[in-house]
């Protein structure tokens, strides 16, 4: 028995890998292993002999099994040490900028617009994209059969059969946030509300989901002159071009009176879009003095307060400022496009640091 023990413990100590250990296990304590065969001979022994040999064989079997397990653990440790030695990584090396993601132009322009209006004393308000029919239309003085509902190509949500409450809508503009903020905060107010909006429309300058930023200023003595000044300040700061040409056109919205639309001068040559030149115009915003009925719907007394509101197309601004000719590409998630038109994630736009670099 001493010979068996010496043989198997030496073999175990010398084993180079797991498969060698397994071969030793089979030869020693496997079903037909040497020690197992010896155990079978116990039956032929006298009871006295068996009393000595039985426990000794069992002890030997245990000893070999635990030697095998210890060697297996030692081999695994050694393998791990070897991997740690060969596969090390220097975490203090600089990152690879080419692999970095970029900010989408819509995010960039939203940041730029927010920075400019923050400087003018506007804070940011938000509202839901799935909106009640009342907030999106009625409260904005667009009653049930008003043609503006059809013009906006609204996406209606589904209602269960037999439920005849008006359906929710995907908001067609950010104007319902005017109502929600008036309800919550009352007057005076000075806010912008950036976010996604939806209309069933699709061509070079329209996508079914796009972005607007709403502006709203309410106080006791706000006039159309304040509106025009704020917008001109905004365009000068945003486009970073002296004397950029804008065109204020008299217009109509149910929720403002009087109303004006604003276009920016641009040219399209060989599929290239350029601002500040040519004889084309791109409409970028709608605006006006808040209709008294809208103030009332928001819980504000129109005899005491008045204000202006505007809604700017963020994607349109991005197209103009960064010369991006097709709006549809904004939402294709094409990595080459994103690398080309994207912005460095850590360049936060500020007025003093420069909006875009
Ligand atoms: N909500 C209008 C639109 O989406 C824009 C607008 C906002 C006009 C505020 C006037 C005042 O077209």
Provide a short characterization of the protein structure.
The chain is α+β, with helices and mostly antiparallel strands and about 350 residues long.
Report the order of strands and helices.
HHHHHEEHHEHEEHEEEEHEHH
Strand tally = 10
How large is the radius of gyration?
A: 38 Å
Distance between the termini: 83 Å
* Domain module count: 2
List of distinct ligands in this structure: phenylalanine
Tally of DSSP helical segments? 12
The CATH architecture designation of the largest domain is: 2-Layer Sandwich
Overview of this structure, please?
With 357 residues, this protein is of the alpha+beta class. It folds into two domains: 2-86; 102-344, BirA Bifunctional Protein, domain 2, CATH 3.30.930.10. The chain is 40% helix and 20% strand. It has helices at residues 2-14, 18-29, 34-40, 47-86, 105-119, 133-136, 147-151, 176-185, 224-239, 292-297, 314-322, 335-341, and strands spanning 123-124, 130-131, 169-170, 189-198, 209-219, 246-253, 256-269, 272-275, 280-290, 306-313. The strands form two sheets. Strands 1, 4, 5, 6, 7, 8, 9 and 10 form an eight-stranded mixed β-sheet that branches. A two-stranded antiparallel ribbon has the order 2-3. Strand 6 and strand 7 (256-269) form a beta hairpin. Helix 2 packs antiparallel against helix 4 and helix 5 (105-119) packs across helix 11. The protein is elongated. The structure holds phenylalanine. The site of phenylalanine has 10 residues, from strand 9 and strand 10. The site of phenylalanine (PHE) has 10 residues, from strand 9 and strand 10.
């Amino acid at each position: 028995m001493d010979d068996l023990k010496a043989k198997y413990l030496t073999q175990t100590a010398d084993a180079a890998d797991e498969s060698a250990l397994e071969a030793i296990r089979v030869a020693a304590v496997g079903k037909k292993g040497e020690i197992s065969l010896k155990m079978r001979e116990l039956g032929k022994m006298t009871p006295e002999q068996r009393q000595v040999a039985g426990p000794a064989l069992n002890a030997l079997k245990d000893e070999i099994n635990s030697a095998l397990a210890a060697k297996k653990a030692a081999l695994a440790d050694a393998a791990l040490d070897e991997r740690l030695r060969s596969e090390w990584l220097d975490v203090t090396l600089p990152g690879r900028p080419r692999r970095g993601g970029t900010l989408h132009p819509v995010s960039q322009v939203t940041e730029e617009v927010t920075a400019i209006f923050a400087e003018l004393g506007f804070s940011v308000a938000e509202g839901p994209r799935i909106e009640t029919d009342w907030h999106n239309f009625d409260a904005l003085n667009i009653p049930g059969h008003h043609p503006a509902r059809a013009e906006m190509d609204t996406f209606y949500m589904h209602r269960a059969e037999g439920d005849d409450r008006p359906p929710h809508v995907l908001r067609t503009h950010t104007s319902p946030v005017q109502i929600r903020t008036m309800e919550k905060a009352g007057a005076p107010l000075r806010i912008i509300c950036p976010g996604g909006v939806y209309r069933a429309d699709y061509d070079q300058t329209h996508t079914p989901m796009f972005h607007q930023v709403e502006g709203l200023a309410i106080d006791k003595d706000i006039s159309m002159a304040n509106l025009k000044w704020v917008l001109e300040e905004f365009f000068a700061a945003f486009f970073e071009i002296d004397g950029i040409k804008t065109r204020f056109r008299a217009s109509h919205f149910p929720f403002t009176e009087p109303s004006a639309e604003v276009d920016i001068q641009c040219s399209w040559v060989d599929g290239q879009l350029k601002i500040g030149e040519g004889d084309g115009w791109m409409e970028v915003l709608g605006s006006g003095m808040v209709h008294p009925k809208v103030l009332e719907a928001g819980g504000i007394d129109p005899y005491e307060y008045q204000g202006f509101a505007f809604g700017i197309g963020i994607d349109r601004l991005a197209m103009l400022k960064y010369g991006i000719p097709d709006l549809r590409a904004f939402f294709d998630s094409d990595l080459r496009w994103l690398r080309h038109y994207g912005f460095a994630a850590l360049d936060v736009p500020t007025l003093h640091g420069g909006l875009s670099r």
